[in-house]
Each structure stands twice: as C-alpha cells, then as structure tokens.
Amino acid sequence: MALTSSTLAAGFGPDEWTQYRLDATNNAVFSNGDAPLKRMKFRTGDQVRATPVIVDNALYIGNHATGGMFRFNLPEGKAAWHDDNPWFRHAPNWIHSEMIQSDGRIFVGYGNRAFQSEFVRGTGDSGVMAVDPEDGATLWSHATLGEVMPTPAMWDETLYITTGGGELLALDPGSGEQRWSLELPGWVSMSSPAIEDGVLYVGSLNSVIAVDLDNRDIRWRFDETASFTDVPPAVSDGIVVMTGMVGRHNLSDQEKRRYSTQRGGFHFIYAFDAMSGELLWEDLLGSGPHQPNNTSGAPAIADGKVFVGSPYARGMYAYDLKTGKRLWEHPTNAGIKGAPAITAGKVFFGDTAGFLYALDAEDGDEPRCENGQATSKMKLGGSSNAASATALAPGGPVVINNTVFVGSQDGFVYAVPVTEFDCR
Length: 424
Known about the structure:
Layout: E1 29-30, E2 40-43, E3 53-55, E4 58-62, E5 69-73, E6 100-102, E7 105-110, E8 127-131, E9 138-143, E10 153-155, E11 158-162, E12 167-171, E13 178-183, E14 194-196, E15 199-204, E16 207-212, E17 217-223, E18 234-236, E19 239-247, H1 253-258, E20 265-273, E21 279-288, E22 300-302, E23 305-310, E24 315-320, E25 326-331, E26 341-343, E27 346-350, E28 355-360, E29 377-379, H2 387-390, E30 398-400, E31 403-407, E32 412-417
Parallel strand pairs: 1-30
Antiparallel strand pairs: 2-32, 3-4, 4-5, 6-7, 7-8, 8-9, 10-11, 11-12, 12-13, 14-15, 15-16, 16-17, 18-19, 19-20, 20-21, 22-23, 23-24, 24-25, 26-27, 27-28, 28-29, 30-31, 31-32
C-alpha cells in the first residue's frame, strides 16, 4: 500500500480497510513507523480461515463454521467485545470474509459452501451484515440467495458483494438497502472482488469479469474451462492477475501432449489487460492432486512482480508482471492457498501444514546471513501430525508495522514480529 499523509493512522493499523487484503494488489502491508508487537496469539472459538484485519488499535477476525466475530485490542491483545463471554457476537453462518471497516462500520459476509442447486452455492442463512466496531452490535443485515464468502468491497460510498447465487449487489452502506444488481455468468465462491479506478474484477465459476461500476455493466469477460471462482484477483499497473484450475480432460490435445508427464489438477496463472481484457500471458504453475475445497492460489503484486502459491504444485512462484517471465520457484511440502505479503525484501506466506515462511523476494531462496543464520519457516500451533487442523489457509498473512498476522485452523490468530526471521 502506498503510504501518504492521509493513509497514515494515529493507531497501530490503517484508519480503514475497504477491500480484500487492503487494496487491489493483495499485498497487505502497512507501516506508520510504530514498533512491531511482541509475539502473541489471539484465541477464537473455531477455525480461522479468513484473513485478519487490523484497523487503528484493533484486530478483527471471524470464525469458520460457528460464525463467531471477534475484536482484540492492540497492543495488549485483550478481547474487546463482551469480555465475560467473548463468543457472544456471531454471524448466522460461516465467516470466510474479511471484516472490512469503513466510515465507522464493519462489513462482513457470511454463508457456506454447500449447494442448494446446480446454480446456487450456499445453504441456510447467507448475506452480509454491518456491525458496530466498538461493541460488535449488529447494525443491519442483508440476506442473499447464495453465500457471501468473498470479502465485500467499499468504493465511492457503495458496498459491493458477490454471491453464490451469481450476482453482484451494490448496497447502501448505511442501511444495507440494495441500490442495484448485476447478473454474473456463474456463482462466486471465494473470489473476493478487487476494485481499481471504478472497475470491479472478480472470478465467477469459469469466467474472469471486469465490471464498470459507473455504467453498471460488464466491461469484459474471459471465459475458459478453468475454475476461477475461488481466486481473488490482483491488480496493478493496468494488469489483472488470476489463477485457475483446469482438469486434464479440459486441456487441448496440444496441451495434453505438452504436459503428458503431469497428472491431477492443472494450475495456471493468467494476466490480462485491465482495460480490454486481452490475455497478456499465461503459464502452468504445475499440477497435483484434486483439492476437496478452495482451489485458489491467490496472487499478490509488489515491485513489478507477481508472487503466488499453488495448492496443486506445492510451491511459491515469482513472475515478472509485464512479461510473464518466471523469475523463481520454491517448492514446499504442502499446498499454498492464501496470498503472500511482500515487505522488507521478504515474501511471507503460510501453507496447509501450518508453516509460516519468509523467503528472499529477489530469488526465492532462504535468507542468507554473513554471520549466523536466519529462520526461513516456523510452525505455528498444533502438532505437525495434524496438518488438517493447523492449516494457515485459505487466508494469507498480512504485515502491519513489521508484525506478521496470520489465522490458523487451530483456532488462533498469530502475531510474529518480522525480526524473528532476521539474521541471528
């Protein structure tokens, strides 16, 4: 995030958080010069699959399955909402959405991944709600047909959500009343929309879509026999980056011959011209076993490079944003689903086995030290034999004032100072 005098907050974090991972690059990094927090963890009531949000002197997070909502005050880390019963505040269904904040309100989507029908994902209560950041009280709730697992986005005093019913909805942020809607070419699962210069980008089933918010219509769409519905796009320098999973049966004959030694789901990365939708470049990240849920691999953009992990190929990759040249790759033992955070010459990311990594952003190697050594990865919580319960996925880490925050499926959000990865 480019820092200006208007974006520097008096508190520990930024003074608002208006879309998935802070801005359209997905590189959720902020600093106003405050000292990093000490290492700590924040206990919640259930798995954390969302990305932590830090605004002013508070951390906000929601729970998978229970829909519990939490605020923790910083820097001490104490639960702020109903200290006698910190699990009092709940959404009606799962929370995979970030709890974004703007104009004195928190907005969060809710819903699950079960299907009502072939065309509608999300059973039970689904929708988006606004809550008071001071006490967590519900201000309004807007029900939808199909889940709202993607993070909402605020733009020009309008709240935008995408749904498991294949709609883009524009809501009044003060009342939750619908202003307008647009049909999308398929349901949206975990593809949190990115908004840049009045255009909203999102993955909808087998399409990548750009919506002109002033004209309220689809500016362009890219259709492919690939699953884009779980992938939050990243946007920078007039380029939109997405990943998508393609089954072998959907490959062309030429691609089948080219990739004859690879099996499973084929994970591709794509880059588009943000204005026209022209496909600028693409590449196969790799292939691997089918993912039972969340087929993402969310990209982030920093310093003219794209950084992206793969749950299929099990590795972190870096590309030149404009040319599509693969700059490096670093294999891991487990899949990577959440977007990385890039700062201080390092790439921070978590994997589905519960490890937090810090690699050199220039070449993808483990940090090098003239004297001593640096930590390149650490296990956060739980047992190494319980990967399914300790995954740092699908939400990725954010870095606020040189403190890495990441949620875990073991029920905690962890805060780790960047200095723990420095040479010692």
